[in-house]
Amino acid sequence: MIDTYNKFYDLLITQCDYFSIPLLNNIQTSIETENMLPHNFQENQVDSKTKKILLESKQLLKVDTENLAQIIKKIKLSFKELEHLTAIITGSDLLNTSEEDLVELRKAGLDHFTLLIETGSDTLLKFHKKPLSLNQQKIALKKLEKVGINFSLGVIIGYGGVALSENNAIETAKFINQLKVREIILLAFNHESLSRLTEDQQELFEMLSDRQILEEELMLLNHLQIETIINSSATSDIIEVGAKLPNEKEKLIKKIENRLFEWKEEEPNVVKAFFDSF
After folding, report:
1. Per-residue pLDDT tens for 48-100?
2. What is the CATH number of domain 116-265?
3. Res 178 pLDDT > 70
4. Which residue ranges does UniProt annotate as crossing the membrane (predicted)?
5. Would strands 228-232 and 242-245 be described as parallel, antiparallel, or unpaired?
6. Domain locations in the chain?
């Protein structure tokens, strides 16, 4: 999970144009507010005209809410042109945070969170041994909607391998269609992720080719029915996938279909007996 978090974090910095403020990396909920603040914004080379900031912390919601609110207010005062302030959080931490605390953070100026949900398939969450079920993820995200905090979601293309590529795309789209998501960020399941699977899991898992990754992205896109923004790093070296939905959906679909049509035909090997025990 740490490697996946880091890749997601890097994507926000490099492709989504967020500037990172190192914050609360060695977190203790009892630390005084002053010690939680960046030592010096100038030392971190933060331009006072910065418009998008990502708070770099893996446990942001475990900080005392009052202290965190003070940090947020200080940041908002320091960057007069700031338009977006976000942080990557986990569904587990969100579930354990009260609505009252979330409202306090929103009022302080933190009105957007980013979560790496990975997939909308319960079958795949179970296979990858994730701590939260799909329903728990939904409860957590609906909490954000209730208190008026926007959010973006990270999804992993190829999370089901070849055999469950369709399952990953369609079930993830179904899940996202139930939510009000500002942005969907697509990452690719890679060899580092594969190495973290057990030997038994690896025997059942065949990674997608570049072509199959693009096909899964297309399938996901075809099933999305909400107003949102979609961006992808999964196929960034093949084709730029980014659009505002639904206005630019058909244009992006046509772009992907044209690229696939140009591609040399492949014959992917499909694993026949995959997840039979699920």
Report:
1. 678 888 887 767 888 889 888 988 888 888 888 888 899 989 999 999 999 99
2. 3.30.750.200
3. yes
4. none
5. antiparallel
6. 1-110, 116-265
Q: Is the CB of residue 56 less than 8 Å from the CB of residue 91? A: no
Cα–Cα distance measured from residue 166 to residue 10, given in angstroms and rounded to the nearest whole number: 27
In three-state secondary structure terms, 185 is: strand
Q: Match 């908002």 to its residue by tokens.
A: 76
Please state whether beta strands 112-118 and 52-56 pair in parallel, antiparallel, or not at all (unpaired).
unpaired
- For the CA atoms of 201, 202, 205, 211, what is the dihedral angle to 10 degrees? 150
CA-based nearest residue to 235, from 179, 191, 188 = 188
Query: Where is average pLDDT lowest: 28-42, 58-72, 125-139, 242-256?
Result: 28-42
- Write the CB contacts of 206 (distance below 8 Å, at least 6 apart in sequence): 161, 162, 163, 269, 270, 271
Residue 264 DSSP symbol: P
C-alpha pair distances (Å), 45 with each of 15, 19, 48: 19, 10, 9
Q: CA 94, CA 144: separation in Å to the nearest integer?
A: 9
* pLDDT surpassing 50 at residue 268: no
Q: What pTM value is reported for the model? A: 0.85
Ramachandran sector of residue 79 (left: φ over 0; alpha: ψ -120 to 50; beta: rest):
beta
Q: How far is CA 72 from CA 21, 69, 88, in A?
A: 12, 5, 15
Angstrom distance (rounded) from CA 75 to CA 77: 5
Give the three-state DSSP class for 21. Answer: strand
Strands 52-56 and 150-157: unpaired
Q: How many Cα atoms within 13 Å fall on the side-chain side of residue 227?
A: 1
Determine the Cα–Cα distance for residues 222 and 218; give it in Å rounded to an integer. 6
Place of tokens 């905090």: 149
